[in-house]
Structure formats: C-alpha cells, structure tokens
Automatic annotation (TrEMBL):
Taxonomic placement: Bacteria, Pseudomonadati, Bacteroidota, Cytophagia, Cytophagales
Name this protein carries in UniProt: Replicative DNA helicase
EC number(s) per entry: 5.6.2.3
Top-level taxon: Bacteria
Role summary: The main replicative DNA helicase, it participates in initiation and elongation during chromosome replication. Travels ahead of the DNA replisome, separating dsDNA into templates for DNA synthesis. A processive ATP-dependent 5'-3' DNA helicase it has DNA-dependent ATPase activity.
Single GO MF descriptor: 5'-3' DNA helicase activity
Reactions accelerated catalytically: ATP + H2O = ADP + phosphate + H(+)
KW DNA-binding (keyword) present: yes
Length: 544
C-alpha cells in the first residue's frame, strides 16, 4: 500500500485519493477514501444482507425506505440494486430476485453489478428480514460519516485557496452540514405512491381540524378563514407605503401566533431596535398609549395594568434579532440555528430592502439584481426550513403620484419584479384615512379601518379583509372586536421610582444578537388585577 502524501501544490489541485478503488472493483467511486491511509466507513456485509432480505420479503422495504437512499450504499453494485428495488416498489411491482434482475437488464446495469449471479447470491446471505431496520441504520450511519469526510476535505481544500470568499465558504459549510443532518430523518426521493399516501393522510388531518387552519395562524379570524393560516414553505410579501402600519400588522400577527397559539416565531428587525419592538409589543398587549410607553409617563393604574397584561408576553416563544444591514448569508445561518434549537414555525423580516445580498460583490452594484437574489434566497429558505417566511417590502412612490384610487397594485412593488415572481402570496396594506378618506362609496365610515389586500395567492383566492387599526396601541385587531371601557381598581403600589428589574415585570436576555423574553414571577401589591385596558371607541386614534 502506497501512502506517500502529495505536495501542497498537488493537494490543492487534486484531492489525495489514498486507497481509492476503481469502479471495476465494485465500489462506489464517488465516495473517495479519506487520504489518511484508510478506507471510508463502510458496512458491505450488511449492505448485502439488507438487499437479500428486501428480495425475499415483500414488506421489508417499508421498514427501511425512509432510512436508506441509493447513495447510502458504499458498494456501487449495491447502490444500483437498491435503486432498482425502489423503482419497482414505486411502480407497485413485486420485488424479488427475478424482477430485480429484469429491472437491471432493462436499465442496462446487469453486467455492471456483476451479473444475475450476484443478485442471486445476495438472496442466499439471509433467511429472513429480521433486524433489517437495525442493519439499515448502521449502513446509514456509515454513509453519514463518509459525507462528513467529503465535506471536511472540501473545507480544507477551499480554505487553503487565497481566492476563496470566507463568508460564502462558511455558508456552504453550514448548508452542507444542515443537509447531512437532515438526511438522517428525511429522504431525498419520493415515489408517487408514497406521496399520494402522504397527501391523503394530510387531507384527513385537515378534515379533523376544528379551527380549519392548516398553517401558522395570524390570529385575525377573517384573514385565517381566507388563507387557512400562513402556509409552510411559502414566501409571503407584505408591502405598503410608509405609515400604513406594516410593522404594526406583522408584530400583531407574530404576537398572536406566539402568545395565543404557542408557535415559536422569529423576527429580524433591520429598521427598529429590539427594545423599540418590545415597547410596541408591550403597548399592544397592555393597551397603553405607545407615546406613554415611549416616555415612561404612566399613571399608577397603568403600571398595574402593564404588570398584569404582559405576563403572557414574557413567556411567549418570540425571538428578536436587530442586526442592522443583515446579509442573506447571516439570515440563513441564524434561521437554521433557531430552527434546530427552538423549532421556529414562522420567520419575519422587517424589511427586505434593508438587507444585503451577495457579500462577494458579484452583483456589480445593480440593486435590482441584488433584491432579486435576496427574494429568491428567502423563498429557498422557506422551503429548506419548511416554515412560512414573511418579508416586509416598500412600495414605489408611484402610488402617491397616481390620480384617483391609491390602492396598491403589483406593479408598485419596489426595485424588482422578481419579488412578485418569487412570492407565493403578496399582501398589501391600505388605510383610506391616511389619504383623508373618511367614508367608502356606500357612505360607511372608514375611520380606523385597515384593508389587507391579497393581490397574489398561489394556493388560494384573492380577496380583501378589513381589520381594525388601533393607532395609539400600534396594533391591528379583528374588525368585530368589542372593547368595553372599564374603570380600573385603585393601585396601592408606588409609581415614582419604579424599577422594572425589581418589579419582576419583564427582563430580556441578549443571546448573540437575538433577544428572547424570559418570564419572571409577578408579585404586584394591590391584589389581582383584571379587565384592564379596554379602549374607548369614541376616543380619537392617532395615525401611525
């Protein structure tokens, strides 16, 4: 065995092949040896045992089809034979020694695998399919180890190159590791019969759902009836002109998902700091004027109201990242970690035009191309993590200069038509009173009304939903929500010199740019406070 290592210059150009066996040796040549004088991890005897079991017991494949892929097999012949078995299964044809041999002849691979004699020999290795699942997991683990070795070799090779963009390399490393991890629980192929069974199972589950929601709920009943919630793997673009309440809407929606439905959510706030965002959450939750929250000018009963109302908010699985000028590479890395560590179900980006695209500078200063690459990357992220991604977007000034109706149109999306193309759903926010309109065509008052216009919906219908916009609390609510003013009970606790840290109201822990709320025990003097914070519908709402 020859183990002389090549020089560094040769190593950069051609990976060291060590004891690499040729295809004629029957070993998958795509899986290179380690370069350390060792063959990659393998379990050829178990590969042969599993293949033999699959050909003698017709139901054995169902136990391993989610564990093994054709590339899980180290030996090239075994790889091809397993692929033939999966093809037969997908075509609902019987799987045995004769049908597998015939399938290999049909694809011209029978001689490559060693002829019909090798297929026959496999069936003599075992007498039953006992322990086949355990054997399959051993094969899969060896395959994962080989994949890790391949990635490690690529990292070493690229890290030596002076021309390598280190941030792109980091992103590729993380993406490769994520795919390897996911491959242990998800398969990369699916036959039609498997997909059909999955679709029917999901349909049955949807039929049994009491609320009818198949996605992450927005908490707005009329909108959820129309969309069935934010759908997984979809990119939702929420667009409006400044001042329409984009952030207020999305913060209300993520609050509803996290607090009312227990769904873990993440928001990347490129425009506002985490403290500003939390202040909005507090104002909306406690129903205290946002201007008072900003100035800290609260009456004694409002301190009690705040204590009482925000307890659920402090316990909510809401993650906030306020990194400015976030790049798409950083976004992907952070979302993958949040998904792995906290199983987030919804991602919100506020807002798209403040993000940076390709850090390598390949876009050549073309902002439209950069926005296009960002929107495509967001769509890919939604599919990769299987979560809905809501990205806020600005509209062009054409809305303001257009005569007559100021309602947004798809052509108003700013900087790139690819945003519309990549999005599964495009939603516009429109508040008539922003343009001085006090009543609609029928003469009905539109004061405090916010219209949610679904202009594109790949998986549903187009419609407009009306919500209540409560400007002084910076939040949206259902139009038919009923608010009854209540007189709060007297509060005996002090307001002067109030210390939020000692009161136990709420603290926030900074975790590497991500702020996570932490619940604390609430002991407020003056007893249990209930029924606070109902707004007076007669009060004038301040525009937002």
């Amino acid at each position: 065995m020859e183990n002389d290592r090549p020089t560094n210059s040769n190593f950069r150009k051609t990976p060291y092949l060590g004891n690499r066996r040729s295809l004629s040796d029957g070993v998958n040549h795509m899986l290179t040896p380690t370069g350390l004088g060792k063959l990659p991890p393998q379990a050829i005897d178990l590969e042969e045992a599993v293949l033999g079991a699959l050909m003698i017991e017709k139901d054995a494949l169902s136990a391993v089809i989610d564990i093994l892929k054709p590339e899980s097999f180290y030996k090239e012949a075994n790889n091809r034979i397993y692929n033939a078995i999966v093809t037969l299964f997908g075509n609902a044809e019987p799987v045995d020694m004769l049908t597998v041999t015939q399938q290999l002849r049909k694809t011209g691979e029978i001689e490559v695998v060693g002829g019909g004699g090798y297929v026959t020999e496999l069936t003599t290795r075992v007498t039953s399919a006992a322990n086949i699942e355990y054997h399959a997991r051993v094969i899969a683990e060896a395959s994962i180890k080989r994949a890790l070795i391949t990635v490690a070799n690529e990292i070493q090779r690229d890290a030596y190159e002076d021309t390598t963009d280190v941030f792109n390399l980091l992103d590729r490393i993380e993406q490769s590791m994520f795919k390897i991890s996911e491959s242990n629980i998800r398969k990369n192929y699916a036959d039609m019969s498997t997909i059909m069974r999955q679709a029917l199972d999901e349909l049955e589950q949807k039929k049994n759902m009491k609320d009818g929601l198949t996605g992450v709920p927005s908490g707005f009943s009329a909108l959820d009836r129309l969309t069935s919630g934010w759908q997984r793997s979809e990119l939702i673009i929420l667009a409006a002109r400044p001042g329409m309440g984009k952030t207020a809407f999305v913060v209300s929606a993520l609050r509803n998902a996290a607090v009312d439905f227990g769904q873990a959510v993440a928001i990347f706030s490129l425009e506002m700091s985490s403290v500003q965002l939390v202040n909005r959450l507090i104002s909306a939750e406690a129903e205290i004027d946002s201007e008072k929250i900003k100035k800290g000018n609260l009456a004694p009963h409002e301190w009690a109201q705040l204590h009482h109302k925000i307890q659920r908010l402090t316990e909510a699985p809401i993650f906030i990242d306020d990194t400015p000028a976030l790049s798409i590479l950083e976004l992907r890395a952070k979302c993958r970690r949040l998904k792995a560590q906290h199983d987030i179900q919804l991602v919100v980006i506020d807002y798209l035009q403040l993000m940076q695209g390709d850090t390598s500078g390949k876009m050549g200063g073309n902002r439209e191309q950069e926005i296009a690459s960002i929107s495509r990357a967001m769509k890919n992220l939604a599919k990769e993590l299987n979560v809905p991604v809501i990205a806020l977007s600005q509209l062009s000034r054409a809305v303001e200069t257009r005569g007559g109706d100021k309602k947004p149109q798809l052509s108003d999306l700013r900087e790139s038509g690819s945003i519309e193309q990549d999005a599964d759903m495009v939603i516009f926010l429109y508040r008539p009173e922003y343009y001085g309109i006090s009543a609609d065509e029928a003469g009905n008052s539109v004061s405090g009304i916010g219209e949610v216009i679904i202009a594109k919906n790949r998986s549903g219908s187009l419609d407009t939903v009306q919500l209540r916009f409560v400007g002084k609390y910076t939040k949206f609510a259902d139009l038919d929500a009923f608010f009854m003013p209540q007189t709060p009970p007297p509060f005996s606790g002090p307001s002067a010199g109030f210390d939020a840290k000692t009161s136990g109201a709420q603290t926030f822990e900074n975790q590497g740019g991500i702020v996570k709320s932490k619940a604390n025990t609430l002991n407020t003097p003056g007893g249990n406070f209930t029924n606070f914070g109902h707004i007076d519908p007669n009060q004038q709402e301040t525009p937002f």
